[in-house]
Each structure stands twice: as C-alpha cells, then as structure tokens.
Design goal:
The radius of gyration is 23 Å and the shape is globular. By secondary structure, the protein is an alpha/beta fold. The protein is built from eleven helices and 18 strands. The strands form four sheets. It has an eight-stranded mixed beta sheet with strand order 2-3-5-4-6-9-7-8, sandwiched between helices. The relative contact order is 0.16. Helix 5 packs across helix 11. The two termini are about 20 Å apart. Helices cover about 25% and strands about 25% of the residues.
Amino acid sequence: MRPSPTRRTVLTATAAGAAALTATGTAEAAPASADRPPATAQRPTRELRALLREIDPARIEATVRRLVSFGTRHTLSVQDDPDRGIGAARDWLLAELNSYAAASGGRMTAELQSYVQEPAPRIPTPTKITNVVATLRGSVTPERVYVVSGHYDSRVTDVMDATSDAPGADDDASGVAVVLELARVMAKRRPAATIVFAAVAGEEQGLYGSAYLAQQLKAAGTDVQGMFTNDIVGSATADDGTRDPYTIRLFTEGVPSSETPEQAALRRSVGGENDSATRQLARFVRDVADNDATGMRVRVIYRRDRYLRGGDHIPFLERGYPAARFTEPAEDFAHQHQNVRVDDSGKQYGDLPEFCDFPFTARVAKVNAAALWTLAQAPGTPKNPRIITSNLTNSTTLTWARGPEPDLAGYEVVWRETTSPEWTHVLPVGDATTHEVDLSKDNVFFGVRAVNRSGLRSPVAFPSPQS
C-alpha cells in the first residue's frame, strides 16, 4: 500500500496553499480560487483539440434554420405532411443522423423510437411521440453509456396551439443542432464507451419523449453514467441587451430526485448534499471543459433547473441516472414560448433564428464535446466506493471495486474541506482497491477516481460509509 501524507504535512500544505509533496508521490494540493482550475482539472488532449476544431458554427446555423423551416414542430402538429409539422422534422432528423452513421464504419446506427402517449396533461388524444436516436457503440466498454439530448418539438404562447407558426429556434432547435453536430463529428471516431445522441419530442407537453427514452434505458439495465440535455443554448443576449457570450450554465441537482428514505437518512448522516453523482458529473465538466480549448466558462448552478421550468434531464434523474442541463447564461423571454408578432412599440416577439448567436452555440457544442469525449475515453466512474467506519480512528480507509477497462492504470483519492465546492487535493494510490489516508474522515470529504494509461481521469465517486 502506497504511503499517504501525514496529518501534519497535509495540513501545513493546505494552510500554505501549496502544491505539495508531489516529488514523493503523495498529495497534490491546489487552493480554491475563482481564477485557478480545481486540483482535479484535466488539460485537453491533442485528440480532443482536433475534435473540437471540427465543430462548425455554419452547420449549426443550417440545422437551426432547417428545423425552423418546418413552420411548427408542436408535438400535436401534423405527422404525415412532408413539409410542415413535427413529422417532417422527425424524418429530416433521421435522414441527417443516417448520413452521419454512413461514415461511421458500422459503429453508429440511427432509429426512430416511438410510442403512443395516451391522454394526459397537455395530450388531449392518443398521440404518437417519436424520439430520433443515434447510438455510437463503444469499442472497449460498450456497456458503459453516455447520453446527450435536445428536444425538437416547439410551441407558442398557448401550449395547446398546434397550428400557429412555432419556429423554436433557440428553444430548442439550438440544442438539437448541438446534438447533431456532436454526432457528425464523433461518428468518424472510436470512443471507448457508448454515446447516445437523442432528439426527443414531447418536451413542451411534459417531458414525454425523454421520459420514454430514460425508461427504456432503465428497463434494459443500461449503465448510463452521465446524461446532458441542451435546452435553450442559442443566444448569449439577455432581455436587457447585455451579452455574456463565453459562459454556459450547467444546472445540477444536489439531493437526488430518486433518493429513497434510507438513502436520505444516510445522506443526512454524512453531509452528502453537495456530493451526488450529478454534482460529481458537473465538477467533471468544469475539469475538462472550462478551458482555452472550448473558450467557455462553465457556470455550475446548484439547482435542478430554473424556477417554474423543467428539462429532459429530469426523467433521467428520477430514474437514478446522473444528469444535468446546459442553458444559455441569461434568457430573453420575448423569444421563447411566444407567438411571432410585432407589438405596438415595434418590438419583435417570437423564437426566430435572427435572435440566435451561432458561434456561441458552437462553443456550447465544444463544452459538450469535451465532456462527452473525455467521459467516453476515460475509465468509468469507480463502483462501490466505501469509507470504512467500523473503528473510531483519526485515519480514513477507503475501498472500491476495480474497473473492467483493459487500459486501467490505477486510482486517485481526492479530498476537500467540507466547506469547499471543489476537490483541492489529489493523491495517486496506484492500481489498488483500498487505501488508508492519515486524515480524519470526520473533517473532510473524500472521493475516488480512476486513471487510464493515457492519463485520462474518470468523474469522482463519493463513498458511502461501511461499518
């Protein structure tokens, strides 16, 4: 077992804010700072930078304008018209994804995922809801899955109005354009894990398409280790005209939506409100996507979603999957959920393409790409992490299960003060499944992450107590 730093050396290094003890193979510390990346940050690889350079704002703009051209994409709109309505949009999306799949060497497949939604809130009659899904199968651990989505349905002021023009450029042709551009760029590559690209329907009527997708994955026992939805990622301009073109919000819940009473009691006992799998996923996104390669700042919001709103990540959260939502930094509500019109003052309403910022959306796509590609190429999140509590001691013993990846190099133990939002210390512990740290488990939070031979790190796994 590799030696750990002592309480004295770690506390001294922390107090000094130093990157300490690396020469002896022990702990690396980075003081928390808004101007400095977390200790767990990962620099973009040459492979990732090459991928990001292929993301094309012009193609994203073309996708948004093509989706707007269908007039309305309301879930209750016509499904058999070749030029207008959600059915025309569905068929075009499938054709696009099939064209990307043709360049994948058989690794990507595209399909329609349909079901009939019986009458329900905002669904007055039985209605076929269809997701358009492309799956890029992993070449090493295909059973490990990551999902990225946007919703292709749209609406106007009256959520039941299925006939008026509902261009839906920002909400959410922008998110679908991100998904398609990721699928196009990644189809030619070989991820280690599987990536699912989904354009879902029924979001505006009640998250119906994403709920069906999440339930199908759950019923199949799919190991979804991360899900992102992109919803309203088309503009960097707020309702007052101010712009923030280099920031993207990432909404991420703390207390899990799927939490059982027993899990809640355990969480309360250890203070794990800020350490759900979703919060670890958000930290990972900051680690790999908040840098010069994307040109973006990832603003993590400790909230499941905005007030009075909800997105397609929620059905995944409700089924126990880590999931988060990307949304532009400040919204202009005159260009969401509005009938297209000009008021008496000359103000234009409606979700039109001219109010989108396509270079901004391309940078959002780069953030998604950095997160998804690194997740798919790195080892999976460690399973069954435990913190041993059978004895009252001032040291901490952690255990975990070894992952199945053939290029697995080992593990790192991370920790931080209980008041810190980011991991501040990283300790390499080698290819082991247990490690003792000479620090009290009562005073700090611990985690474990996996490392492969290329130096890519997994998201952190937060341990549960084991007596």
